[in-house]
Structure formats: C-alpha cells, structure tokens
UniProtKB/TrEMBL annotation:
The protein, known as: Class I SAM-dependent methyltransferase
Coiled-coil residue spans: none
Segments forming domain Methyltransferase type: 37-131
Example of a GO biological process term: methylation
Lineage, broadest ranks: Bacteria, Bacillati, Bacillota, Bacilli, Bacillales
Source organism (scientific name): Sporosarcina gallistercoris
GO MF annotation list: methyltransferase activity
Highest taxon of the lineage: Bacteria
Alphabetic keyword roster: Methyltransferase, Transferase
Length: 198
C-alpha cells in the first residue's frame, strides 16, 4: 500500500510534468554523464530521461516510492540501480561520481547540510551537480504565506518543507554555483554547480 503521498505523487505531478517540468527534466538529465548518482529518485520520474550516463546509482529511502519505479526502471536506456538509503550517509566511496542529480528532494531531506557534504564527498573534484528544487520565494507576502502553510504542507507531503532556502544552503556548502534559472515566479530553481572539494 504505502503512504497516501506515494500513491498520489505521480498523478498529482502530472499537470506540471506534462508541461514545464518535462522540458526542465530533459535539459537537466541530459547533462548527466559518466557515473551518475541520483538523490531521492522517488517513483523514478527521471529514469526515462537518462541517455548519456554510463550507469546511474539512485538512492531512495522510501520503498513505497521506489516500488512504483518498476516500469521506468525496466524501460530505462541506461543501467540504473536503486539503493534503499538516505542522502545523509551515502554508501559509496569518495570521488566515485561524475554527476549528481537531485530533483524536488532537498525540500524533504531532514538534514540537507549533511546531504550536501556527502554529495561532495562521493563526487569527483569538478563533478557536475544538478538540482531542480522549489525554494522559499523572495517577495515578503509570498514567503510569509509559505511559512504559514508549511506546518500543514509538511504533514500532507511526507515532511516536505515548502519554505526551505535550498540555493543558500547549496552556496554555503562550498559548491560553486555556475547557473541558476527560475520558474514560476522563482518558486522553482534549476541550479547547476561544480564540486570544488579537495
Ligand atoms: C517530492 S519526492 C521527489 C521525487 C523525484 N526526485 C522527483 O523529481 O519527482 C521527494 C523524495 O525524497 C525522498 N527522501 C526523503 N528523505 C530523503 C533522504 N534523507 N535522502 C534522500 N531522499 C529522501 C522521499 O522519499 C521522496 O521520494
């Protein structure tokens, strides 16, 4: 069965996926090359978009989400392995990955600073780090509305924080941000960065 969130996720996302998100995922996942780590792969919504990767290791702690990735996993054009674990303690050696992908996931990771440190540890120096995330908005009224809605939102959406300042966290982690593109009044950000560690 799994949580209500995992059961309705794909259907709830469909209106966005069919329009703008399809274009964003095509661009973002198209840049994933070599050995790729995907953080919080959920129902495998990104899997059909991989075409340039050698191999993808996807991590997803919630089996109710990953069990819904079956068809996308079987039909993927590249080899993908899903690992049942969280981003705060990654089961990979230092300097393993050429690219890391995280889409709509940093809102939900309980300890995002730890996760960003782990991403830098397991990715190679100069690795490409690709994010698509919703964030706290800039206009006062909108960000205050996000703050007010958040207690209910996190209950309904499996811990998702509507008002997390993910771009700031990424910059503070030491990742060099090389490109940012905003969507839907800067609610969603496409972020490219480089691992500057070591
Ligand atoms: C909103 S879904 C996003 C799924 C998919 N990445 C997408 O683009 O639609 C957030 C996902 O993050 C996962 N998640 C929650 N805590 C996590 C953690 N500590 N590390 C990695 N993923 C986590 C959830 O289980 C869920 O599948």
């Amino acid at each position: 069965m799994g949580s209500l969130f995992s059961r309705v996720y794909d259907a709830a996302m469909q209106p966005l996926e069919a329009t703008r998100f399809k274009q964003v995922r095509t661009e973002l996942i198209g840049k994933a090359k070599g050995r790729v780590l995907e953080i919080g792969s959920g129902t495998g919504i990104n899997f059909p978009y991989y075409k340039n990767a050698i191999r993808v290791d996807a991590i997803e702690p919630n089996p109710s989400m990953s069990k819904r990735a079956g068809d996308r996993l079987r039909n993927a054009r590249v080899q993908i392995q899903v690992h049942e674990t969280g981003a705060e303690a990654l089961p990979f050696d230092n300097d393993t990955f050429d690219t890391v992908v995280a889409t709509l996931v940093f809102c939900t990771i309980p300890y995002p600073i730890k996760a960003l440190a782990e991403i830098q540890r397991v990715s190679k120096p100069g690795a490409v780090l690709l994010f698509f995330e919703h964030v706290r908005m800039e206009p006062f009224l909108l960000s205050k509305s996000q703050d007010l809605l958040n207690p209910l939102w996190e209950k309904v959406c499996d811990g998702c924080q509507l008002n997390r300042e993910t771009l700031t966290l990424i910059k503070e982690s030491g990742i060099e941000v090389t490109k940012v593109k905003a969507y839907y009044a800067k609610l969603f950000l496409y972020i490219e960065g480089l691992n500057m560690e070591k």
